[in-house]
Amino acid sequence: MAIPSKTLANGLEMPYLGLGVYKMEDHEEALNAMDTALKLGYRAIDTASLYNNEREVGEAIRASGIPREEIFVTTKVWNNDQGYDETLRAFETSLKKLGLDYVDLYLTHWPVEDKFIDTYRAIERLYEEKLIRVPGVSNHHQHHLEKIFAKANVKPMVNQVECHPYLQQDELRAFCREHEIAVTAWSPIGKGRLLNDNTLVKLAEKYGKTPAQIVLRWHYQNDTITIPKSVTPSRIAENMQIFDFELSNEDMLEIKMINKNERYGQNPDNFHFDF
Questions:
Q1: 5 - beta bridge partners?
Q2: Catalytic residue positions?
Q3: What is the CA radius of gyration of the chain?
Q4: Is the model's pTM score more than 0.90?
Q5: CB atoms near residue 230 (< 10 Å)
Q6: Vertex 220, ends 219 and 226: CA angle to 5°?
Q7: Which pLDDT tens digit goes with each residue over 151-189?
Q8: To which H or E segment does residue 13 belong?
Q9: 8 A C-beta contact, residue 19 and residue 34
Q10: Distance CA 184, CA 211 (A)
């Protein structure tokens, strides 16, 4: 079955479910995972310069035989490449590695202080030059977005953030909705740590689904795009089986109650990476 898509602020369609390829650094493993996903009907792949697999993404797309315009490709500029000119150069490198003529969505990976506004200005320029189809950011809090709004001609159309039932991000999601910014959840299943949650296990039994499918369906009903990562063919297929059932309002409310504001990744206000 075809994966539904969300209409973005500029009218373009972005699939609600894509394959995240973080940590897929083994060449064959990465190609096999993407080949599996594309054959099953996935039409979105989320990579980044940091992931060191942009070449594999391009290779998988070419090998699939699927027309380029049918596949939604996201990549990101890493922290040490940020700034206006630096971002333009980093994009050129990513495009070359991907072997593509354009990227569908280009994101600032993290809001590097004193640089993220200039980084986004470069992304805006790439959008104006039609080298990317959608400008966006990731790991941006509301105050980061407001600073960008003050300088930008075109608002970011996507914000990719950590989001799962233990970190529901209600206020940020409401702010993004108000400004027509689609939210993508990275780590949508909380790095697997939610799968033994009593509420989710109980709902999985009720609907004849897995806890992971319950969580991904919850995201979909919250109008959130997800990019779960997996190299396991059965898991890649399982993650797609979420469009044939619907969680009741009561059950959505029950999941809302398990929020803990618990992060498993770093906080965009205080992040540090050694690489």
A1: 15
A2: 51
A3: 18
A4: yes
A5: 20
A6: 65
A7: 999 999 999 999 999 999 999 999 999 999 999 999 999
A8: strand 13-15
A9: yes
A10: 20
